[in-house]
């Protein structure tokens, strides 16, 4: 904004080149009159930034005594503070107030406008204000004789197009239309506006604002999507529940905004929807925290395995299951939940090998989502696997480290060990080659080099240990697996992977025969597991 405004007011960095007949369009601002005040639906960031810029100018020019500076300062005063009929400003009454639902820092914004001081403040408002202060100081040093031209040209020749709608409905419609073009707002911003309108009509605006703040803070903690915002993610997970209730099993998924805008955002004109979003977010928060009060260890172990699923479809699947099966206290029956989790692990893992790509998974999963909301068991009756075909696919599959299913399989295998404790979800876990690749390069000990990348040669290992153990012979890896004391008598903790500890305690070496036997054991156990879940024909 600073660069654009400066380039407009000082073309080619030359004050004399400015054309006073030119105008700079800053964009639209959509408002409607609410209880005698202009409530801004679109243009909030633009306006607050402009107010900070003008306040920074005023702080620098307000005490100057020359006529141009005094006139400029008076015009800026009239933008920032309310004025009487003579145009004199009341420094205790700002023209703007922030009621943005997610703005935890509005007090800093209002304080800066009132006092012109951002020292000690850490909000983005304060950062922006200090940025403008520095730019203005640099400008004064570069153009000491032309210091009043920049703010006066901003005031006189920069245009905000104010669109005053006749109602909030119309304002929101304009807002949505404007933001469907160019760089869009997040879907959650659009949904927030609809909720805001609905709860305001119920006289529950303040309650909604507080709850939205809490929901947004919670989502920011637990969701880290590659695309969209954390708030978009909770709306996405809830969407699959509503899709299932509507009987939609099409493998083509509508865009999030398109789904919720149906029938004039009918879903968002319902208190139950907002409460359900909060409930669902709390459920996922407890999964993220591995909450032992909500979930038994048996459930947490399976949820940990799913955290390393080859794709994110399980999060939608489990969201639908939770919304459909929770009791009044938000609890799920443990035995039924465990069966469900085991069955989707077995199914999703197998599909990742036999039908790679998340798009292929949509057809069976969407159909089962409808069964869930209709309180039917998840059986995948129409999508069961041929046992021999699955075995062949697993035996011939290349479980390279860059394929997500590799870590998925190793996580599942680690938790087949009853003694395996839970890793905290924030533990950085990597894939360990038990027979090191560097060892093969040096010794050529494996007759079949493909065994190097077989599941039988791989295991989960904490990154801090994997860095140290990666290039060593097995006999050297043992001390890293088990933990050791270094030369400075510092204790270096070993791995929490029970299987690696068992190998370290029972073997002096790990060779090609061990790799092949372990590989066969992993695949045999998984095929058996698939059968136990009644997923084979």
- Strand order, sheet with most strands: 2-1-5
Total helical segments: 24
Strand content: 5-15%
> Could you say which overall geometry the principal axes of the C-alpha atoms support?
elongated
Q: What is the structural class?
A: mainly alpha
Rg over alpha carbons: 31 Å
The figure for the number of domains is 3
Strand element count: 9
Report the average pLDDT across residues.
91
Q: How much helix is in the residues?
A: 55-70%
Specify the oligomeric state.
single chain
Outline the fold blueprint.
Elements: H1 2-9, E1 24-34, E2 37-42, H2 44-61, H3 67-80, E3 81-83, E4 89-94, H4 106-115, H5 124-142, H6 149-157, E5 158-165, H7 168-178, H8 187-201, H9 205-222, H10 230-245, H11 256-260, H12 262-265, H13 271-288, H14 297-306, H15 313-325, H16 334-354, H17 358-373, H18 387-396, H19 404-414, E6 429-433, H20 437-443, E7 458-462, H21 463-469, H22 474-482, E8 483-485, E9 491-493, H23 498-506, H24 512-532
Parallel strand pairs: 1-5
Antiparallel strand pairs: 1-2, 3-4, 6-7, 8-9
Structure commentary:
By secondary structure, the protein is mainly alpha-helical. The chain folds into three domains: 177 residues, no CATH class; 194 residues, no CATH class; 129 residues, no CATH class. The protein is 56% helix and 9% strand. A hairpin with a 5-residue loop joins β8 and β9. α9 crosses α10 and α9 packs parallel to α13. The protein is elongated and about 90 Å long. It starts with a helix and ends in a 5-residue tail after the last helix.
